[in-house]
Write a structure and sequence with these properties.
By secondary structure, the chain is of the alpha/beta class. It is built from 12 helices and 11 strands. The protein has helices spanning 11-18, 22-30, 37-50, 56-63, 79-93, 108-120, 135-144, 167-181, 197-212, 229-241, 254-266, 300-315; strands spanning 68-73, 98-103, 125-129, 148-151, 162-163, 186-191, 222-225, 248-251, 276-281, 294-297, 329-331. The strands form 2 sheets. Strands 7-6-8-9-10-11 form a 6-stranded mixed beta sheet, with helices on both faces. Strand 8 (248-251), helix 11 and strand 9 (276-281) form a beta-alpha-beta unit. Helix 1 packs across helix 2 (22-30) and helix 8 (167-181) runs parallel beside helix 9. It is elongated.
Length: 346
Amino acid sequence: MTIKPRAKIRIEEVARTAGVSAATVSRALNNPALVSPQLRAKVEKAAKKLGYVAHGAARALASRRSHALGAVVPTLGNTIFSDAIGAFQRRLEAENYTMLLATSDYDEEVEYRNVRTMIERGVDGLMLVGATHGKALYDLLEASGVPFVQTWAPAKASPYPTIGYDNTALTRIVVDHLAGLGHRDIGMVAGLRRNNDRVRARLVGMRAAMRRHRLPLPASRIVFTDYRIDAVRAAFREMQRRGPMPTALVANNDIVALGLMLEAQSQGIRVPRQLSIVGVGDLEVAAHLHPPLTTIRTPKQTIGTLAAEYLLARIHDRPVELPAELALELVLRGTTAPPPRKDKTV
């Protein structure tokens, strides 16, 4: 049996069902701020009942806007980015915008292709992660005129609009805490540096903080890993192969900290009695680990919300200012303690 496709519902049918004009339907669906909440709800109810879908290309042509914003993030495996993206999308939905999402896997060429495709699809603005991108990408963005905002870095990190926190300050906070507990041998399990200015800034901050406390940080005390648990556990073992373990480890994020805790526990190394561990991010799981994870709380949702608000303001020619830097908070839980006495080293 051949099923004949249903004729496309027209805006005039929605208008008749809602008892309003076609122009009112268009305003309610495309510029909801121009109509009352009651009228908007009435129109949306009629559109949903009829299964009406606006013609995106025609609407974009008429308004010169697609009512879609793009976001390109390195990965969704790290839920730090997921939390920010969730806040970004919620803020867009409040103004009847939708989000297009892509991941780059820390690959500059993939990021460029994703951005180019989104611009070709007519997005009204773009959110990017990090404050350093390839020249070709910046040239593309400037030529297109599409508003964009960079995230997860402070405004001072780039001449382009940027929202986030100081990653050098982040590792300084962690080292200050560990040194204050008496640790003198501190290592770092960092993320991969390729196309990742956050990791590079944290390394700079780590080295500066260790110098300020007059503590050594030889190259053997820094191991790099990606964000898979098995890779993190391998990084832990690599640190062990280089010599006696440090008394404390700074993890690049909470996922890395979790992997370090799992490997330590599998070897019978007690955290924090024999080894202190600090994460970054304060993911939901951090408070539920055993022991609960000491970590840096980053403003994940604030970054996503501010990124959306900045782009919406640019699109609608509203004045907008970005904060110079967002605050970080050290959350003390159960994975840090004074170092073990020398006769009880790991």
